[in-house]
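Would you be willing to look carefully at the protein I have copied below?

:::
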Amino acid sequence: MTTQSAGPLAPAPAPQARGHRMPTIAEAGPLIALLAACAFFMSQSHRFLSFQNLSLILQQTMVVAVIAIGQTLIVLTAGIDLSCGMVMAFGSIIMTKFAVDLGVQPILAILCGIGASALFGLLNGVLVTRVKLPSFIVTLGTLNIAFALTQIYSNAETVSSLPDAMMFLGNTFRLGPAEVTYGTVLALLLYLVTWFVLRNTVPGRHLYALGNNPEAARLMGLSSQRILLTVYSLAGLIYGIAALLLISRTGVGDPQAGQTDNLDSITAVVLGGTSLFGGRGSIVGTLLGALIVGVFRNGLTLIGVSSVYQVLITGILVILAVAADKLSHRRG
């Protein structure tokens, strides 16, 4: 009996070990691409390398970068989340409407907005795990639901005159010659915590194992339903935090926000080297991918390239990254 049971369980440690090795491999390409993009724009504009401009890139990137954390967790399980941008927008409207129209204390209003986003994540997780629907279809549906609820509850009107507590993360402090927002610091801390969990904890290894080989994960005794439900719920909570960062940066609750952030977050994840087939990638790569998008858009703006071409170039980069992932998956 011992010999028979060891057979199917023997390959199980592979995805866990791979989860530890992948960050070094996955980060190499995105890091080179980021450095090359910076070098190119430095040669084209003397303003690119200024501390003020680099700080601006971080501020412009932080919202999508935080959304991309939740997107990465889902993609690592071989899923995808198309609802993330609108879930974030819904959370931001809940926060601002509760605080301004209902007079709820800012901290409690923020928690309500984050909780509303987390509930959307839980709904996605339940539909994926219990009803067994594809994540693409589920999140496409909840995208539309979140969009409709956001428009209905806000009457398609921007919420302004927000309390100062909601805009704290948009405040800046000096770090040498540069000004950095507290929101940027929070975003980097979230990346640090996620990196540690994925790389150095048992739940992180289980996540890689499930994405890499669901059958092997089942033979290891892992509950795929529990892991997926946790991942989708946690992703929703992260989108709620992104909603707070968005509010702190714009100073309003905007019902039109988030409509392209789902594609931007997927772009960051793919450019960061995370495989759409699941089980391979790193959160550091996602941060680099978000910075690549931010650097390209900022640099192209500085040299006077139309925003239409910025979208074109971003699309080409995504196709190249997915094609490289596909070839790598075939060879594997």
